[in-house]
């Protein structure tokens, strides 16, 4: 502690460091394969704000966003805690600086509700470790800095700032409260560092007592992290070679829908289930929950028809249907799950994904569109994503609609022959028929590895469209009822 750098030495070393940082930032943009998220925590008056201001002077600020997120507002509280951070992640080639970042929730609890912090800390830290591991593996380098100073220095700085009319605005009531509880702040910070320090996102604890030492140290850490990640990105590009999965045969245990009914019986059953769903989603208690439905299945298995029978029972202001296709250029510049987090519903609302985040372990795996390491890693990332949803009161129901090869062929031909429905089948659909068995095998592993008590899969034999639709509606109703109980 109390490391110092003279002003003359600082001024001598700074130009070279600034050039190195600018060069690393330019290479980050040129490489375009990763982003950098810089998180700054620290005690009040340790120099976080001054440090960020200086970094923005040294670097090209056009390619940096700064986030000082306050206590969650109404929109934030309507969704899982990590939602607001996913929204602010930097795209590949860019940097984002966070004051506190996703550590703010625990630090606030530790200081203002220590009992609650002790009860929740294990899960909060697990959530953070999982997030940072996923980000590091999916193109976001997380650099974590904790700026520290001793209590005596902190008191002097706050007193000096408060005494000057021109700098008084830089101190807040919260800063003064935290200064009075210095030991409590230091203990909470030490626990955070110890619990979340990991190879994927290590902590750098920096003495903030001397300004010149602090700025040089932060600049060097940022430069070194950029250089290290650029080297890793270069090596990864050389080694990256997507290939098709071997897809050993595995069986699917399908739910056989009820026996065939007459058209009249079907319409009666459909109306009853739609009425049941309409009633459930209009209850006052549903406002404390949300609903996410994820549809997967073989081509022409009837996902679209099943979704329409659900939406006919809903208030159009209450839901959104997200058709998932190949990612856009913008979506590809973020971690894989970013585009799904964007549409997580607020409490009282419903999001229906027509295809979903499972594309990584289905089409991307089967067609060799992503490296094996990425789709294998995705199983754990998906489980964590769904856990984030269900912990916040979101009911999650997942459907695999299966259709026989013969029925699929018949539906393809019927669509081609119908001028109003021919858009529903294209060359890609026909090409996918070659991978029919591979898709079902990949689906079997997917279901085995991601079926959870709080986010269950329902597998439906869908050769009979009408019976499959009834089975889907019944499952959706049951999922909402469980959430409301």
Structural notes for this entry:
With 485 residues, this protein is α/β, with parallel strands linked by helices. Helix content is 53%, strand content 13%. The protein folds into two domains: 7-239, P-loop containing nucleotide triphosphate hydrolases (Rossmann fold, 3-Layer(aba) Sandwich), CATH 3.40.50.300; 263-484, 3-Layer(aba) Sandwich (Rossmann fold), CATH 3.40.50. The chain contains 20 helices and ten strands. The strands form two sheets. It has a five-stranded parallel β-sheet with strand order 2-3-1-4-5, with helices on both faces. It is elongated. The termini are far apart.
Please describe the topology of this protein:
Blueprint: H1 7-31, E1 35-42, H2 48-58, E2 64-67, H3 74-77, H4 83-86, E3 95-99, H5 104-112, H6 114-137, E4 140-148, H7 151-163, H8 173-180, H9 182-196, E5 203-207, H10 211-239, H11 263-281, E6 290-297, H12 303-311, E7 319-323, H13 329-332, H14 338-341, E8 350-354, H15 363-366, H16 372-391, E9 394-402, H17 405-417, H18 427-432, H19 436-450, E10 455-461, H20 465-484
Parallel strand pairs: 1-3, 1-4, 2-3, 4-5, 6-8, 6-9, 7-8, 9-10
Helix pairs in contact: 1-10, 5-6, 5-9, 6-16, 11-20, 12-20
- Given as residue ranges, the uncertain stretches (5+ residues, pLDDT < 50) are none
Helical segment count: 20
Helix content: 40-55%
Q: What's the mean pLDDT score?
A: 93
Apparent shape: elongated
- Placed side by side, the strands forming the largest sheet appear as 2-3-1-4-5
- Look at the structure and give the CATH class of the largest domain: Alpha Beta
End-to-end span in angstroms?
55 Å
The CATH superfamily of the largest domain bears the name P-loop containing nucleotide triphosphate hydrolases
The portion of residues forming beta strands comes to 5-15%
């Amino acid at each position: 502690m109390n490391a110092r750098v003279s002003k003359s030495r600082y001024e001598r070393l700074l130009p070279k460091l600034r050039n190195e940082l600018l060069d690393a930032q330019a290479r980050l943009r040129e490489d375009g394969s990763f982003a950098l998220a810089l998180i700054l925590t620290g005690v009040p008056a340790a120099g976080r704000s001054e440090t960020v201001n200086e970094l923005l002077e040294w670097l090209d600020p056009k390619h940096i966003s700064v986030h000082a997120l306050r206590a969650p507002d109404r929109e934030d509280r309507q969704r899982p805690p990590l939602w607001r951070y996913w929204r602010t992640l930097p795209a590949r080639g860019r940097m984002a600086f966070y004051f506190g970042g996703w550590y703010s929730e625990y630090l606030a609890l530790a200081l203002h509700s220590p009992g609650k912090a002790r009860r929740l800390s294990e899960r909060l830290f697990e959530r953070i470790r999982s997030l940072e591991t996923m980000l590091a593996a999916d193109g976001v380098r997380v650099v974590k800095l904790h700026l520290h100073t001793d209590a005596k220095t902190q008191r002097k700085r706050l007193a000096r700032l408060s005494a000057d009319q021109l700098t008084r605005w830089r101190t807040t009531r919260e800063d003064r409260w935290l200064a009075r509880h210095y030991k409590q702040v230091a203990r909470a910070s030490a626990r955070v560092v110890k619990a979340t320090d990991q190879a994927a996102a290590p902590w750098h604890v920096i003495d903030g007592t001397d300004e010149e030492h602090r700025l040089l140290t932060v600049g060097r850490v940022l430069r070194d992290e950029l250089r290290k990640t650029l080297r890793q990105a270069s090596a990864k590009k050389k080694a990256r070679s997507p290939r098709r999965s071997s897809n050993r045969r595995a069986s699917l245990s399908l739910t056989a829908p009820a026996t065939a009914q007459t058209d009249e019986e079907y319409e009666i059953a459909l109306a009853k289930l739609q009425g049941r769903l309409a009633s459930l989603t209009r209850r006052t208690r549903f406002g404390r929950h949300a609903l996410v439905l994820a549809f997967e299945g073989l081509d022409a298995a009837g996902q679209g028809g099943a979704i329409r029978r659900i939406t006919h029972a809903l208030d159009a202001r209450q839901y959104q249907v997200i058709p998932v296709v190949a990612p856009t250029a913008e979506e590809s510049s973020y971690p894989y799950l970013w585009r799904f987090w964007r549409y997580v519903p607020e409490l009282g609302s419903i999001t229906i994904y027509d295809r979903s985040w499972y594309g990584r372990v289905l089409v991307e795996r089967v067609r060799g569109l992503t490296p094996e390491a990425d789709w294998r890693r995705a199983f754990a990332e998906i489980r964590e994503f769904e856990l984030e949803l269900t912990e916040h009161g979101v009911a999650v129901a997942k459907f695999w609609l299966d259709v026989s090869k013969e029925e699929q062929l018949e539906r393809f031909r019927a669509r081609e022959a119908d001028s109003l429905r021919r858009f529903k089948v294209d060359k890609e659909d026909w090409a996918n028929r070659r991978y029919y068995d591979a898709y079902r095998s990949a689906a079997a592993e997917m279901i085995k590895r991601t079926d959870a008590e709080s986010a269950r899969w329902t597998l439906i034999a869908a050769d009979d469209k009408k019976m499959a639709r009834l089975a889907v509606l019944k499952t959706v109703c049951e999922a909402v009822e469980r959430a409301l109980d």
